[in-house]
Each structure stands twice: as C-alpha cells, then as structure tokens.
Amino acid sequence: xxxxxxxxxxxxxxxxxxxxxxxxxxxxxxxxxxxxxxxxxxxxxxxxxxxxxxxxxxxxxxxxxxxxxxxxxxxxxxxxxxxxxxxxxxxxxxxxxxxxxxxxxxxxxxxxxxxxxxxxxxxxxxxxxxxxxxxxxxxxxxxxxxxxxxxxxxxxxxxxxxxxxxxxxxxxxxxxxxxxxxxxxxxxxxxxxxxxxxxxxxxxxxxxxxxxxxxxxxxxxxxxxxxxxxxxxxxxxxxxxxxxxxxxxxxxxxxxxxxxxxxxxxxxxxxxxxx
Length: 275
Known about the structure:
The chain is α/β, with parallel strands linked by helices and 275 residues long. The protein is 33% helix and 22% strand. It contains 9 helices and 14 strands. Strands 1-2-3-4-5-6 form a 6-stranded mixed beta sheet, covered by helices on one side. Strand 11 and strand 12 (154-155) form a beta hairpin. It is globular, with a radius of gyration of 19 Å. The two termini are 28 Å apart.
C-alpha cells in the first residue's frame, strides 16, 4: 500500500485502501485527520482509520455507482455523536447524504487536514461525474482524484455519457500539469496495458511500463498513482491524435478513421469487447 510523504513535517499521506476485488478508496491525511474519496465500503476505511488513529473529517464522492458510495451511510452513522461529517458530491447525480452539491469550478476547502480542491466536470462514465484537483500539496505536487474517468493506461466505460463527452473530459484532465499525481479508483492497469499494446504494439514506453507494472503487482503493490505526463505516453485514450494508433484502428476494423473523435469512439468500442 502506498503512503506518500508520510514523514515530512506538514506533509500529507495519500493512501489507497483496497476494497472489493479491485477498488481503491483513497484517504488523505495529515497524520491526525483524514478525508476519504469514494468509500464504496465502510469496513476497510474504518479499519485503516482505527489502525492509524485518524479522525474522519470529510467524504468526497465522484459519481453515484455503488462501489463508490456504498459505505457512506455506515461511515456517517458511526459518527453522529461527533456532529457528523460533510459529504461532497456531484450536483448532477442522485446520491443520498450529500451536504454539498458540486459542479465545474466549485472549490472544496477542508480545514483538517488543510486541503483545497477545484471541482472538474468530467461526464462520460456517468452523466454527472466530477473530479477533484488539488493544485499543490505541502511539497508543491498537484493531485487528481478522478473516480472512474481516467485509469492508468485506460478510461472508464461509457455507461451514461457520449464519446464526445468522455473525450472532452479526458482532454480536460490531460491539460493538467504533467506532474499531477493521478489517484484512480481501480487497479485495472495490467489489463489496460494489454489493450494499449494492442493499439500501439511498437511502443517502447508501453513495454517498459508493462514490466514495471508486472513487478509492482508481483510485489503486492499498487500501480498507482500514475501521472498525467506518464499517461500521455502510455494511455491510448489520451493519444487518439497519434497517426500510428489511428492506423492500427483502421486496420483492425477495416474502415478509415476520420478524426480524433472517431478514433476514440472506435477504440472505446474495441476495449469494451477486448479480452
């Protein structure tokens, strides 16, 4: 389990708590208080908070799927005597227990730990999906909590949105600083790399990333966080302008690829069936 910047004075830890088969529930803490992002299950969160002696001070949600919101009620119910915990989430989705409904440009400020996030609208996976961007931590590093929009070497399925929406959402995330640490919500990396290499078989960057990811998983470690800069090199969904990838798609499906949106649409359909 990754615990970043855990010993420097005034620093924050960013911890991926495993849940279900392949989810990560992220905790951000100053070694005393913590916020949780997308707690689909309360039990592993409670266990980790108890182990570290951390107090939960806020809940942030990216979208309405049960594996991201299913633990909210239990986390709240166990803290009624403490005066409750604020719950932030997307304005455009029906989610119970929200105390603040957010959309593009809104700012979330948490006092303990001291955190500030800018909200990004990133529809596609769901209609009202949002992401949380922290411009800098105490060491100056930016962080992104993107739910199921962007994955390491992949992106989310289009359950409610359109290809146009998802491509625009990915473009928005790709415009963030290259050193932004991307805290995805699932450990899909190895299967995503297999698909990425099918799209771009001659990529040396993907070959190296595959070796690194395999080694991390063999050691029982997460492949996350990734970075925006890294994803621009190894994520085919952020590389739909690449002529070699477009040529692969054209050959695979026996049809011309007219533009980047067409490339994304064909690629996402291929990924949905890829085994």
